[in-house]
Amino acid sequence: MKIIFATNYSYPQVGGSENVIKEVSERFALNPENSVFVLSNNVKAEFCEKAVSYLPLKSYEAFVSFVNQSNIDILMVYSDCFIYWKDIILNPERLKCKIVLCPVGFNATEKNTKLYTLLSSNGSKIFFIPHSKNYKDYSIVEYLKLNNRVIPNGIDLKCFTDNSIDFKKKYSIEDKKVILNVSNFFPGKGQEFASELIPEEIKKDCVFVSISSKINLPFESSYLSKCIASFNNKKIKNMFLRSVGREIVLSAFKCSDIFLFTSQKEVSPLVVIECIAAKLPWVSMPVGNCSELPGGIIIPNQDKDFSGNYVFNQKVKKEFKDTVYSILTDDKRKKDITKNNLEFIEKRDWDKIQKEYENYFKEII
Question: What pTM was computed for the model?
Answer without folding.
Answer: 0.91
